[in-house]
Every structure is written in structure tokens, then in C-alpha cells.
């Protein structure tokens, strides 16, 4: 039995460090992730603002060039419910961006990210099989927290804020940009898992 308190502390650290190291995921190379998220879309039309909410699913492919810097492509789709109780619609997003890991050597790794974002809102049109789509783009900033459960699996929670604009309408194969552009803001709060192949 170890009687010296200092030696006991050294022994405890020596016991815990291998376990922590074995659970830490690498930040370099390819990773895949899946998320569920809550979404809110705010738009301003003719001076009137509205805010709709919903939930969706997303997936991401990322590649870490260094332990701190990674590029990613994320796709998401949410089912939205208007605040006025009208018919629901779909909101799709595509993000291409960069992620900066703040503590890449830690099991608990906060990160910041920025992306260019494509966005599309899709509405059913009664009496037709075609959808009316509002398309546009914007810029996204966000951040999150990764917790490594094992060398190949991490838990992820993230918040993304997108400021953008719908600039094109499309229906039944025809599109136009001859309309008043619609300013928009999207908030996404998601949780998911990251996998290292």
C-alpha cells in the first residue's frame, strides 16, 4: 500500500492518463457526423417580420488538415411550422466552411466555425405536383463543443447563426429574380455524433 500522499497522487494520475488518452479522438483526417437540430427562420417582408420554427436532420463530411484547422461540408433539412399556423414547409441548408479547434489535444474541445451557406425554402402548391422554392445564400458563424467518447466517436453540440437573403423564386422548372429580395436569419441548435472512419 502507498502511504505517502504525494505518491498516491502520482499513482492516481498515472492510472487516469492512459484512460483519457485512449478516449481522445484525433482531429486530423476524415470525419463523418450526423445531427438532429432545432431551427428558427426569421424573415422580413415589406417591413413585417415573422419567425418560424421547426426541427430537422443534418449530415457533415469534414477533413482536418491540422489538429486545429478543418474544412467541412454540411447538409441539413428541417420541417418548419409558420408562427401564424399556416401550412408547413421545408428549409434546406448547405454549408461550406472552416472550423478552428481551440483545444485539439483535449477530450473536451470547443471550436469556432464560419461558412458560406446556400438556403432554400420549399412550399407545396395546392393543385400541382410542383413546389414553389425561395432560394438564396448567406454567411454563417457558429461554434460548438466536442466530447470524445472514444478514439473514433465524439459527442457534438453546436450553435450556428446565418444571416442571408432569398434572391430567387423557382416553380415548375422556371426561376426568376424579378422580385423584392427577402432578408433572412437562421438559427440552428444541434446535437449529434462525429465518427472517425
How does this model look, in words?
It is elongated and about 55 Å long. It has a single domain, classed as Porin. It has one helix spanning 5-23, and strands spanning 29-45, 48-64, 69-81, 89-101, 108-124, 131-148, 153-171, 174-176, 182-195. The model is unreliable at 9-22 (pLDDT under 50). Strand 5 and strand 6 (131-148) form a beta hairpin. By secondary structure, it is mainly β. The two termini are 43 Å apart. It has an eight-stranded antiparallel barrel. 10% of the residues lie in helices and 66% in strands. The protein contains one helix and nine strands; from the N terminus they run αβββββββββ.
General shape: elongated
Side-by-side strand order of the widest sheet: 1-2-3-4-5-6-7-9
SSE class: mainly beta
Number of domains: 1
By CATH reckoning, the class would read Mainly Beta
CATH second-level architecture? Beta Barrel
Largest sheet: 8 strands, antiparallel, barrel
The helix count comes to 1
Would you list the SSEs in sequence order as H and E? HEEEEEEEEE
Short structural description:
The protein has 197 residues and is mainly beta. Helices cover 10% and strands 66% of the residues. An 8-stranded antiparallel beta barrel has the order 1-2-3-4-5-6-7-9.
Please describe the topology of this protein.
Layout: H1 5-23, E1 29-45, E2 48-64, E3 69-81, E4 89-101, E5 108-124, E6 131-148, E7 153-171, E8 174-176, E9 182-195
Antiparallel strand pairs: 1-2, 1-9, 2-3, 3-4, 4-5, 5-6, 6-7, 7-8, 7-9
How would you describe this structure in keywords?
197 residues; mainly beta; Porin; 8-stranded antiparallel β-barrel; 1 helix; 66% strand
Amino acid at each position: 500500500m502507498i502511504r505517502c500522499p504525494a505518491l498516491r497522487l502520482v499513482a492516481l494520475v498515472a492510472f487516469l492518463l492512459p484512460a483519457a488518452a485512449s478516449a481522445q479522438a484525433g482531429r486530423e483526417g476524415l470525419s463523418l457526423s450526423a445531427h438532429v437540430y432545432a431551427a428558427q427562420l426569421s424573415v422580413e417582408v415589406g417591413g413585417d417580420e415573422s419567425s418560424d420554427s421547426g426541427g430537422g436532420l443534418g449530415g457533415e463530411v469534414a477533413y482536418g488538415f491540422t489538429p486545429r484547422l478543418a474544412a467541412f461540408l454540411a447538409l441539413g433539412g428541417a420541417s418548419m411550422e409558420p408562427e401564424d399556423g399556416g401550412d408547413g414547409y421545408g428549409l434546406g441548408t448547405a454549408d461550406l466552411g472552416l472550423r478552428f479547434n481551440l483545444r485539439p489535444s483535449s477530450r473536451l474541445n470547443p471550436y469556432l466555425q464560419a461558412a458560406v451557406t446556400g438556403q432554400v425554402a420549399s412550399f407545396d402548391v395546392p393543385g400541382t405536383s410542383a413546389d414553389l422554392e425561395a432560394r438564396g445564400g448567406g454567411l454563417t458563424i457558429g461554434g460548438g463543443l466536442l466530447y470524445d467518447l472514444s478514439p473514433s466517436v465524439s459527442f457534438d453540440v453546436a450553435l450556428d447563426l446565418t444571416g442571408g437573403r432569398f434572391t430567387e423564386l423557382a416553380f415548375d422548372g422556371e426561376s426568376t429574380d424579378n422580385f423584392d429580395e427577402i432578408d433572412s436569419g437562421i438559427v440552428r441548435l444541434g446535437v449529434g455524433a462525429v465518427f472517425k472512419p
